[in-house]
Design goal:
three-stranded antiparallel β-sheet, 7 helices, ATP hydrolysis activity, single chain, globular, about 220 residues, ATP binding, six-stranded mixed β-sheet, binds adenosine-5'-diphosphate, alpha/beta
């Protein structure tokens, strides 16, 4: 059962071909790693999948619908840019605002805070959080609507080793809890550690797709 089906996806910015004929399938229940160096086209692809920008051409189905359709948005949680929260509000109050907007029950806020291991710091100001905590709050926000599909763009980027470990553990927990996760990364070791399947993208093109246990020896493909 495919939750994401992309074929021939292309996105151009003037002369720049950011995404060049990408085919990609994400199956229900898998943690899929979208692996490639900086500038490969990962963010552009994920922004198209979440409906933030339109493709130049190609076919894109997410949860059986078009990206950005309200029925699809309601079943997808994403963290694409570094999450923007109000610095002087607590993590809890930031999530309350989002929950209210999304029509999510208060009870769910406690659940997601627990999931991302922020329950104990929930009442502290966002501005006092480490980068890892900020990113985990971003994932908490993405999980508020209990989405079937979670899309995370470089969720460990910029994190220190402890922050990375926390985020990777969280993503593995999402996967083993049966959620479908699509994440991007430029770290081979990271996708080997946390993903079931990996698609490698370079200069806008899909270079290869592997089950994670087939990935050894592919180091030379990745910067
Ligand atoms: P990645 O996420 O893999 O680092 P991106 O999708 O951000 O790659 O970028 C792919 C290519 O498209 C890069 O060359 C980038 O400079 C270019 N690009 C991305 N967004 C824009 C934009 N809004 N306008 C022009 N070029 C862009
Ligand atoms: P990422 O780190 O995900 O690759 P960037 O920092 O490259 O993201 O891009 C941040 C923003 O700038 C995005 O909105 C992206 O579309 C835009 N952008 C990226 N590259 C270019 C570019 N060459 N020209 C114009 N906008 C760009």
């Amino acid at each position: 059962d495919a939750l994401v089906e992309v074929s021939g996806l292309t996105k151009r910015y003037g002369e720049t071909v950011a995404v060049d004929g990408v085919d990609l399938t994400v199956l229900a229940g898998e943690v899929y790693g979208f692996l490639g160096p900086n500038g490969a086209g990962k963010t552009t692809t994920l922004r198209i999948l979440t409906g933030l920008i339109a493709p130049t051409s190609g076919r894109v189905r997410v949860l059986g619908g078009r990206p950005g359709e309200s029925a699809v948005l309601g079943r997808t949680g994403s963290m694409i840019e570094s999450p923007a929260f109000y610095p002087y509000l607590s993590g809890l109050d930031n999530l309350r605002l989002l929950a209210e907007y999304a029509g999510v029950e208060r009870r769910r806020i406690d659940e997601v805070l627990e999931l991302v291991d922020l329950a104990e710091r929930a009442k502290d100001r966002f501005s006092t959080y480490s980068l890892g905590m900020k990113q985990r709050l971003g994932v908490a926000a993405a999980l508020l609507k209990d989405p079937e599909l979670v899309i995370l763009d470089e969720p460990t980027n910029g994190l220190d080793p402890a922050g990375m470990r926390g985020m990777r553990r969280l993503i593995r927990e999402l996967g083993s809890g049966g959620r479908t996760v699509l994440l991007s990364s430029h770290l081979l070791g990271e996708v080997q550690q946390i993903c079931d399947r990996v698609g490698i993208i370079n200069a806008g093109r899909m270079v290869a797709e592997h089950n994670v246990d087939e990935l050894r020896g592919e180091q030379e493909l990745v910067v």
